[in-house]
Amino acid sequence: MGERGGGALLRLRGVSRTYGERQALRPLDLDLAAGGCTVLFGHNGSGKSTLLRIAAGRDTPTGGTALFDGRPVSEDDPEVRARVAVVGDMAACYPDLTVREHLELVAVAHAVADADDWIDQVLADRRLADHAHALPASLSSGQMQSMLLAAALVRPRDLLILDEPEQRLDPDARRRLARLLLAERADGVAVLLATHQAELAVEVADRMVALEDGRVIAEGAPTEVLEQLGHRS
Ligand SMILES: Nc1ncnc2c1ncn2[C@@H]1O[C@H](COP(=O)(O)OP(=O)(O)OP(=O)(O)O)[C@@H](O)[C@H]1O
């Protein structure tokens, strides 16, 4: 778990986001180093997705600075696109492309040479081999979630961003998700995720940021934060 450049890969300082009158995110700081995993935890509407979108460069904060490896995070920056993998939502799918074709498209977009073996491995790991030639409309919701995850795994990445990746997964797929995220960390990938599942957070993350109404109400080791929140598992 080496630290790239000795510091944080993702560095947020005083980052905030307002939508009109609504303050979705109040100024917060966040540092995430290579091999680290920070989990965002909080009720619906607490600001988790807003923060993830800013970290992914898909949205610009209305206050503060968001840096990836020292440069402003923007999806328009080829360096950010090359090194930041975001697990997308269903809107990111093409109805007439098969599961395998989606993965091939991502691999080609990232200039991965000889992607076939890599794609086969990811399909097998995500239990999608039997659905490689299926179209999105014929997938179950859990299989769809697995495909979206797979698409982030057939390309190089230094930062992996996931918004409630446990959604719609069965217990076995959730266990494999936890193992995957730990393996990502061991490979030096920084992982930032939002989840509603305390067990997943404890298993994979070394830091938890608890949000409420766009405000950080607790942060630290996941078990300690959950204790502060009075969370019972
Ligand atoms: N595009 C938008 N325009 C206006 N308000 C928005 C927009 N996106 C988010 N918000 C508001 O910002 C707040 C935070 O939303 P956000 O999606 O970040 O919450 P969340 O913690 O990800 O919730 P969930 O657990 O339901 O996914 C909410 O009050 C939401 O209504």
From TrEMBL:
It holds the Pfam family ABC_tran. The keyword rRNA-binding does not apply. PROSITE patterns: ABC_TRANSPORTER_2. InterPro entries: AAA+_ATPase (IPR003593), ABC_transporter-like_ATP-bd (IPR003439), ABC_Transporter_VariousFunc (IPR051782), P-loop_NTPase (IPR027417). Residues 10-233 form the ABC transporter domain. Keywords: ATP-binding, Nucleotide-binding, Transport. GO terms for molecular function: ATP binding; ATP hydrolysis activity. The keyword Transport applies. This is ABC transporter ATP-binding protein.
